[in-house]
Amino acid sequence: MTVTANFECELATELESVVRGVPGVNTLYPTAPLVARIVGAIVSGFTQREAASDLVTITMGEAGLNVFAAVRVVGSEPATEVCRLVFDSIATVLAAHSPVPIDTIKVTVASIG
């Protein structure tokens, strides 16, 4: 089963919104390498295709979807707790909306404070 580019864009946008709503998350950082972001912008410009969010990266792995997010954590909650909340929020959205299984969810705390 394949995932369409449009589905990836919509899902990435929804996940971005969900992650931003997690208490303790202050900022989302781009997870795709700079070169991939530049190429994606060029391709979407030529194809008139909606560009995927570069703040939550979704790729297809051998066993299913791989989702990556990098966040800045602020507040009194430990970064590990906020990271777990982000992971759980992503997993909940994927369980409800994804037509393919989840392979990996990776949440990185890129900055604290």
Compose a concise summary of this entry:
Helices cover 43% and strands 27% of the residues.
Structure characterization notes:
By secondary structure, the protein is α+β, with helices and mostly antiparallel strands. It has a single domain (5-112), classed as Alpha-Beta Plaits. The chain has three helices and four strands, in the order αβαββαβ. The chain has helices at residues 5-20, 34-47, 79-97; strands spanning 25-29, 56-60, 65-73, 102-112. Strands 1, 2, 3 and 4 form a four-stranded mixed beta sheet that branches. The longest helix has 19 residues, at 79-97. The radius of gyration is 14 Å and the shape is globular. The chain starts with a helix and ends with a strand.
Compile the SSE list and pairings.
Elements: H1 5-20, E1 25-29, H2 34-47, E2 56-60, E3 65-73, H3 79-97, E4 102-112
Parallel strand pairs: 3-4
Antiparallel strand pairs: 1-3, 2-3
Helix pairs in contact: 1-3
What low-confidence regions span 5 or more consecutive residues with pLDDT below 50?
none
- Sequence of secondary-structure elements: HEHEEHE
Mean pLDDT: 83
What is the third-level CATH name, the topology? Alpha-Beta Plaits
**SS element count, helices:** 3
Judged by helices, strands and strand pairing, the structural class is alpha+beta
> Helicity, in percent?
40-55%
What's the domain count? 1
Could you give the count of β-strands? 4
Q: State the shape.
A: globular
Largest sheet: 4 strands, mixed
| Alpha-carbon distance between the two ends | 41 Å
Give the CATH level 1 class: Alpha Beta
The CATH superfamily is identified as Cation efflux protein, cytoplasmic domain
Relative strand content? 25-35%
CATH architecture identity: 2-Layer Sandwich
| Rounded radius of gyration (Å) | 14 Å
